[in-house]
Amino acid sequence: MLLLGTAALSACSVGPDYRPNSAAQLGVPEAWSVPAAPQPEDLTRWWRNFDDPVLGDLVEQAAAANLDVVQAVARLRQAREALVASRSELLPGIGASAGYSRTEPIRGGGTTITLPDGTVTTTDGGGRSNFSLGLDASYQVDLFGGIRRSVESSRAQYERSGFDYATTLLTVESEVARNYVLARAYQAQLGNARDSLAIQDDNLEIAGFRLQAGLVSSRDVEQARASRAQTAASIPSLEQQYNAAVSRIGVLTGQAPGALKALLAPPRPIPGGPAMVGAGIPANVLRQRPDVRAAERNLAAATAEIGVARAQLFPALNIGGGFDTSAAGVGGLLDTITGSLFAGLTQAIFNGGRLQAQVRSSRAAADGAFAGYKQAVLAALEDVEKAIVALQSAQERERQFAVAYDAANNSALLARSEYRSGLTDFTTLNTQETALISARNGLVQARSDKATALIALYTALGGGWDPSVVPTAPGKN
After folding, report:
1. Which structural domain range is residue 267 located in?
2. Which pTM value belongs to this model?
């Protein structure tokens, strides 16, 4: 009856049972507030959509070697072992002991004894040996589910660590891709600056010839010198920014800052990527975004902690027992075995309100965790909509800058030809050259912004990992 009653009591767990919140409870709308492609797509390896093998290799290298990712894996392993330790509380603890002792007389060959009849005798002075063995066990009966709630909390924390790892992975992947785009954009701007510098060298030479011929004043030469110097001054800044982007990629891939300079030195176009990305419905972020799922697991852990705190208000039952034996020789250890069995029930009577305060504190933590979860959801929705609008804006700017570049290039060619022929002044030529430089750099910036917005959208949608699998720690070391 005692065993049946204990089992019945152990089947109950105090505290609230965690139930996931619906999308409506979290304030998730049914549709995006900005125009977005409805059809979802596989985002697990989104960088392959840019059709740039160098980019793909760098992202996958960072996913394997980045030191932030390595640290996240270490934290995940720690969380796994914490779960193992928590589960061990559900099982009895068993210990064994063994001992050996021997007593010897301090001095003399024996003990002198005087018998009642006056006879004096001496006992044998040899020592005594004693062997002992013991086995004990203890078990805390989880009457009100405090231990089970603790295991539930540890499991949720382990899963949260897995999603934290995935969040770190996505951040690293997007940072590598973003810096790669920046590096290619700086290469393009450097190419523009050097091309413009060559043209301005030619303009300066022509202005000098015309000055010598008396066709123009020295103002044309000075304007040409000023324009050339301004263009030349932009090159060191672009080189510094390019070097910073390449160095950042090296560190993100777990290498020294200069490790990738030779690989990235040959200029390549800015990766274009697809024209459209399917965003699906807003509710998808609850499943696809690892940071949102980490916040949800944090709420589950906080809810379980309420049960852990409430269980402290109820009685605790401990059962234990043991077996012991001792003998003068090893062969006699099994001759006499003694056993013991005990059970103890403890109940908190007065603690100054400490246990009740712990329950209230756990409830407050759960309320805060819910607010954090909802905030993570809303922030994810914001990220997606901002990335969608940024992509659309960059695409439109790219179209307009392409038109501007074509027109500015034609106008600059005409102005250059007219200046050589003496049909226009240098101020007009300089104005057209400046417009061409601005249009070329604007087109490069728009393409860079478009690629960056695509990367941000892929990341905002939770791309870069497999959301159908909860990340787990690698095998035990």
Report:
1. 15-91+144-313+357-460
2. 0.87
